[in-house]
Structures are given as structure tokens and as C-alpha cells.
Specification:
The protein is of the alpha+beta class. Among the domains are: 37 residues; 36 residues, no CATH class. 29% of the residues lie in helices and 15% in strands. It is built from 4 helices and 2 strands; from the N terminus they run H-H-H-E-E-H. It has a two-stranded antiparallel ribbon. Strand 1 and strand 2 form a beta hairpin. The longest helix has 10 residues.
């Protein structure tokens, strides 16, 4: 069995090989086969900031427009709940303003649960 000779790559060669991985439709394994090397070697180079190409390389820097809109910052109405339901055993479902739902099952303290949602 023939022993493989260890190859050394220059910094520019490493950068060039790493840059090839950014081409659309090209995988790291394709680039590795093209250079007769293991894909893991390229992945290791990509982790190194000296060789890893940035995805914004050769792209123009631009600013995007931002619009700040006023929002209703009025306080939420106070919560009211039945004090006798201090320790509920069962299930509660709460629909939040943003449309998400919170479902709680088992034994829980209703006052603490509601206070946690408001704060």
C-alpha cells in the first residue's frame, strides 16, 4: 500500500478553495473532489476566519429604509379573577393578544400565573 504524501496549501489556495464553496449549487464535497481532497479539510478551513469567505464579500454595502411607527402604549386593563380559584386543579387556556395560546394543566396557582403573564 502506497503512503500518501502530505500536501501543503498556501493561504491563497485555501482562500480560493473556500471561496468556491459559495457558488450556487456547489457543495463542499464537490469542491473537495475537484481538488482531490477530503471535504472535512475544507470544513476545517471554513471555520478559520483567515480562510473563510464572508457571504457579503464582493457585494455592495447598502442601507435599508426603516420606518418607525407609533404604537399604542396604553396600559393593559387590570386583570380580574375569582379569588376562590386560587389553587385550581384542572386545565386553563389563555389566548394572548398576539394570537398565541397558553394551555396549563394540573395543579397551579391562578393568581401567580396571571401575575406572571402581566409582568
Amino acid at each position: 500500500m502506497a503512503c500518501r504524501k502530505r500536501r501543503s496549501w498556501s493561504i491563497e489556495e485555501k482562500r480560493s478553495i473556500c471561496l468556491q464553496t459559495l457558488a450556487p449549487g456547489v457543495s463542499v464535497s464537490k469542491v473537495a473532489r475537484r481538488h482531490a481532497m477530503n471535504a472535512n479539510q475544507i470544513f476545517n478551513w471554513l471555520k478559520d476566519p483567515r480562510f473563510a469567505p464572508s457571504e457579503t464579500e464582493d457585494k455592495e454595502t447598502m442601507f435599508l429604509p426603516v420606518e418607525v411607527a407609533a404604537t399604542d402604549m396604553s396600559p393593559a386593563p387590570p386583570l380580574s379573577f375569582n379569588q376562590s380559584a386560587q389553587h385550581a386543579d384542572g386545565r386553563i387556556e389563555i389566548e394572548l393578544v398576539n394570537g398565541h395560546r397558553l394551555k396549563v394543566e394540573g395543579r397551579f396557582d391562578v393568581a401567580r400565573l396571571l401575575k406572571g403573564l402581566v409582568s
